[in-house]
Specification:
This protein is of the alpha+beta class. The protein has helices spanning about 1-75, 95-100; strands at about 85, 110, 120-130, 150-160, 165-174.
Length: about 170
């Protein structure tokens, strides 16, 4: 009489073993798929970081191009609100760099494109009004602010994808 009981108990254990093996395999499959997803996400993040760096370098090249333009040709520059040379708009208007068409070659100054960039970097120069020191707004004690010409330079760089855009701005004093 004991023999049939042993067979029944053995058959039940084999069924539990199959269920446990299937659960472990399912868990391993889910962990494998999660690992693949994490790996793909990290690859995309690395590519986006690289693309943003390329756009930053392109914008930096645009800044340097406009700085060189001012340094070499400052006396000959005509700020007529075209060809990348602008006067500062009234305070009630948005800044020029927000309203200019960055893809228009007649509205901005182009710089050589870094390898891999979709479009060449572009920049624009805004001539800032000269403010003379009244004796109360010195940058350092006893040193008045100079009456040098000042320019706001804005540059736009694009990475390897058109969606990756970086703007950089600086004030250049001559």
């Amino acid at each position: 009489m004991h023999a049939p009981v042993m067979i029944a108990r053995s058959q039940r254990q084999q069924g539990i073993t199959l269920v446990m093996v299937l659960l472990v395999l399912s868990l391993m499959t889910v962990l494998g798929l999660l690992g693949i997803n994490v790996s793909n996400l990290q690859e995309r993040m690395a590519h986006n970081t690289q693309d943003r760096g390329l756009a930053f370098n392109a914008a930096e090249a645009g800044l340097r191009m406009c700085e060189t333009t001012i340094r070499v040709n400052a006396a000959a520059l005509v700020f007529g609100n075209a060809h990348g040379l602008y006067t500062v708009p009234p305070a009630s208007d948005p800044p020029r760099w927000r309203t200019v068409n960055w893809d228009d070659a007649n509205a901005t100054i182009a710089a050589p494109a870094p390898v891999g960039a979709v479009t060449p970097p572009r920049c624009l120069i805004e001539q800032l009004p000269v403010t003379l020191d009244d004796g109360n707004d010195s940058l350092a004690a006893g040193r008045p602010v100079s009456a040098d010409a000042q320019y706001r330079i804005t540059a736009r760089g694009v990475g390897s994808r058109a969606e990756t855009v970086v703007f950089l701005q600086t004030v250049y004093r001559r």
